[in-house]
Every structure is written in C-alpha cells, then in structure tokens.
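WARN retry 2 of 3 for item q-0093 after timeout on previous attempt; input resubmitted unchanged.
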Amino acid sequence: MSMTFGWSSSVTLLFDFWDVHGPAGMVLSVFVVLLLTVFYEVLKVWRLWLSRSSKLAQPQSAYAPPPSYRSDSTAALESSPSESSLNPMEPPPPAANTTHRWLLHAIQTALHMLQVSLGYMLMLCVMSYNTWIFLGVVVGSVLGYFISFPLVVHK
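OK item q-0093 returned
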C-alpha cells in the first residue's frame, strides 16, 4: 500500500465492496464522502443545539439573580446573617423532569456514537491516500461548517 497521496481513479474505501475503478466511480465516491462529511458537521451542530436547548429548558434557581446583575457587594450582603434573616424563605424549585433529562441524554449519547463512528470512517477514507477523496472530505467539511454553524450562532 502506498503511503503517499496519489491522483489515481482506483481505490478501495472502507470495505471490499467499495472498490472504485474509473473516473465515474471516483466522482460518485467523492460525492458520497462529501455528503458524509457534511452530515458529520451537521451532527456536531445538532449536538451543540441539543445541549444549549436543554440548558435553557432547565429552571433557574430562585435564590440567585443572573450573574450579569450580581455584584460582589450584593453577594456579600446576601451572605450576611442580618440580610438573610430579612428575606422570606422560598421553597426550592421543583425537581426537573428526570425522564426528559434521561431521554435527552440517551439521544445525545446516540448522536455522539454516530458522530465518532462517522469521524473515524472519514479518517480511514483520508488514509486511503487518494487526493480526490481527501479533497472531498475537506470540501465537505468546509461546506458543512458554512451551512450549519451560522444556524447555532444566530439563535
């Protein structure tokens, strides 16, 4: 096996049945690898979006104001005995829905497993040392990043 990049249109990718011979097969294989890479980038964004949405859905504590409004002097006053005795005692917030949390965790775990598996498969495609396949992975990564990451940043 060659350990340098080449421009050949013949390569075996991942499995014995994915044996490419000729330009048409190479174009199709590069397109499939490109789509898999775009899907990999979308999975990363989906996991980030799920993580952010689950944090936003969690109830905020009734005891502490948001960090942007809290100053050191406010924190010192709240911890002093005289200030805390003036504030009425509030019951703790209700426990979060544990079934929803476990379901979300299971979904994120499955997505992580899919993302890691797909990432290693793409790495093995690049390790075929075929320049066309390598370019398909790079262009797919750029395209997937370009399409998906602005959706997370602007929300």
